[in-house]
Amino acid sequence: MRIAAERRTMISKAPLPTLRLRLHPAASPGSPRTALDGAWWPRSADPVAELPALVLALQDHGPIDDHSPITHVLLRVGDWDGRPRRLWIDGPADTRVVRLSWFDSLPAGLLTAIHADGRRVDLLTVPVSTARAEAEAAMEPASHPAGHPHTPGLPAALTISDPRRLDEVRMPAYRRPGHTIVGLSGALDAAAAPALREHLISALRHSARLLILDLSEVASADVTGLAVLAGIQRRAAGLGVTLCLAAPGPQVTALLHVTGLERVLTVQHARDFHTELAA
Question: Does pTM surpass 0.70?
Answer without folding.
Answer: no
